[in-house]
Design goal:
Elements lengths: L9 E9 L13 H18 L9 E12 L8 E9 L5 E10 L6 E13 L4 E2 L4 H7 L2
Antiparallel strand pairs: 1-3, 2-5, 3-4, 4-5, 5-6
């Protein structure tokens, strides 16, 4: 299945990661929870590249909603290409979204998922305005 990315989304990060033997379940395909781990890995790696990893003593993002749509079964062995997008920045939130395809089958989407994130002051446990620096990065 091929999915077109809506124009209002911005590609912000790409990475490749291996499918590990232990990612599979008894049915011989990647366990559903692993797709969320792949999404998490892409999101955290992206945050590292832009120097925005959440700091419990300061501020950062919190996931308030996460989803994943499964289109084809991923199986070991192989490598996954994740393409991460952002969109819809608001006062305190923005959306992240990613596609997953096998490196040996470019353009064939196996799964797509994402998360709504909110920018938080961790010590105060309160949502705060998205910093201008982040707003520039996530705005399409």
């Amino acid at each position: 299945m091929k999915i077109e990315i809506p124009e209002h989304k911005k590609l912000v990060y790409e990475m490749t990661m291996p499918i590990r033997w232990g990612d599979m379940d008894a049915m011989g395909h990647v366990n559903n929870i692993m797709y969320f781990r792949y999404l998490e890995t892409a999101r955290i790696n992206w945050l590292q590249t832009i120097d925005a990893v959440p700091d419990p003593a300061k501020e950062g993002i919190v996931i308030i909603n996460a989803f994943c749509n499964f289109y084809k079964q991923l199986e070991y062995p192989g490598d996954i290409r994740l393409k991460m997008y952002t969109s819809d920045p608001a006062r305190t939130t923005f959306e992240t979204w990613a596609t997953m395809e096998r490196d040996d089958q470019p353009g064939v989407i196996y799964a797509a998922g994402g998360a709504t994130t909110i920018w938080v002051d961790f010590p105060k446990q309160k949502a705060i305005d998205l910093p201008d620096r982040m707003r520039k990065i996530v705005t399409p």
